[in-house]
Design brief:
Length: 426
């Protein structure tokens, strides 16, 4: 204890002071240690957060890579130093190179002596809005076409950060252009034939001094026939245009008996094509149907027109209809050339023409494609059966009328070229 001042008490005072200093220093050390622990915990949490963010970034990068690799186009990414930082497998394949060997190199070095090196560099250097082109090159006897888009990447200050190249296989474009040209020629040919007849017979009729009354009636009949053909061609082209644009078409349905329409179309073809025998066979007295009259008439015209095109003159073309399982079934059978099993599978493809008679028969190759679209829009089905030399049968179904109960099951339509059960001929 410290009882008095003076020299005898000094050691006690110094000892107390020393202890106080030790306590103070210890407290400071403890505070510093606690702060270090807090700093360490903050750093640990920050490290964990950075690790999580890095893992997330890697996950996003992996997903982005998978997405880019799944695209139908190739992508090349160039960084601010002008080196390739990204090259998808499809881009390398389109260029005929290896993706890994292209990374971390300037574009010229990665492409080496590739014919597209300079064109791609020039494309990247173009002004904005003019960085899309079609590039072509040859390797041996093979020709390659690429559709290329280039885009520079800049920050808000206009500093160049990099660039991207998007490559698409354009080899199909030449084939597409050729198909379009062929289609246009076919359309022109199909339109020219009826127009030429209409103009020719009209000019003859204008020369009244050379035309007898009975000839005038014959010419008017021919003009009307060709005019209706022209109208059907235009209807098919308009329908196909709507389908190609993805718009489809609106159906104007009604509940009505299909039999009068079948009779009308069959009579019309008998009148227009007297060299053929058209037989209408109905397995039911009434055919109550929920349908678009104009569109179904278009289907019937296309199917019967095909039968006339592919069947020899003088043969029979049979139009059958009946009810089966609450669906109206209609079939068109001919005794024409028929087709192979391979052609049968492609018969509904757009612009398809059977190889054996493609040059012998006129038409655009759209009829069956349009028929399928119309029938399916009604909720029905359509199918084709054919054998070489035996003819073809096309059968389609339509929903029965909603407001009529079909309390009976009509006999099933017959197989191709056989008489239907309990059918009546009209």
């Amino acid at each position: 204890m410290f009882f008095q001042s003076g020299k005898r008490g000094l050691p006690m005072s110094m000892e107390t002071t020393a202890r106080e200093i030790e306590v103070t220093e210890l407290t400071q050390l403890q505070d510093e240690l606690a702060e270090l622990r807090r700093d360490h915990e903050r750093l640990r949490r920050r490290h964990r957060r950075l690790e999580n963010e890095l893992a997330t970034a890697r996950g996003w990068r992996c997903q982005l890579g998978l997405m880019l690799e799944s695209l139908p186009v190739g992508i090349i990414g160039i960084d601010g130093r002008g080196q390739i930082a990204l090259c998808t497998g499809r881009a390398a394949k389109l260029l005929g190179l290896d993706a890994r060997s292209m990374l971390h190199q300037p574009l010229a070095g990665a492409l080496r002596h590739h014919p597209l090196t300079r064109p791609l560099q020039q494309l990247l250097a173009r002004d904005a809005g003019d960085r899309e082109t079609l590039l072509s090159w040859k390797t041996g006897d093979s020709r390659h076409d690429l559709r290329v888009w280039a885009e520079q990447i800049r920050n808000s200050s206009g500093v160049l950060l990099g660039a991207t190249l998007v490559l698409a296989d354009a080899n199909g474009e030449r084939g597409l252009q050729q198909k379009r040209s062929t289609a246009l020629l076919s359309i022109g040919h199909e339109l020219r034939n009826p127009l030429t007849s209409i103009i020719g017979f009209t000019e003859l009729m204008l020369d009244s001094t050379r035309i007898k009354p009975e000839q005038r009636q014959q010419f008017l009949h021919h003009i009307l026939q060709k005019g209706k053909l022209l109208q059907r061609i235009i209807d098919d082209l308009q329908t196909m245009a709507h389908l190609e644009e993805g718009h489809g078409f609106q159906l104007q349905r009604e509940d009505a008996d299909l039999q009068p329409l079948l009779q009308k179309v069959c009579d019309q073809f008998r009148w227009e094509h007297p060299d053929y025998s058209f037989e209408l066979e109905l397995a039911s007295e009434r055919l109550p149907t929920h349908y678009d009259r104009q569109r179904v008439e278009q289907v019937l015209h296309n199917l019967l027109s095909n039968a006339v095109k592919y069947a020899p003159s003088g043969t029979s073309i049979r139009l059958q209809a009946g009810i089966w399982e609450e669906m109206i079934q209609v079939s068109v059978c001919d005794q024409g050339h028929g087709m192979s099993s391979d052609d049968e599978l492609r018969a509904f493809d757009r612009h398809f023409r059977s190889a054996g008679i493609a040059g012998e028969v006129e038409g655009l190759g759209l009829g069956l494609t349009i028929c399928r679209a119309i029938v399916q829009a009604h909720g029905g089905t359509i199918s084709l059966q054919s054998r070489p030399g035996e003819g073809t049968e096309v059968r389609f179904s339509l929903p029965a009328a909603r407001n009529e109960m079909l309390s009976y099951r009509a006999p099933e339509l017959s197989a191709r070229h056989q008489q239907p059960l309990q059918a009546t001929t009209h």
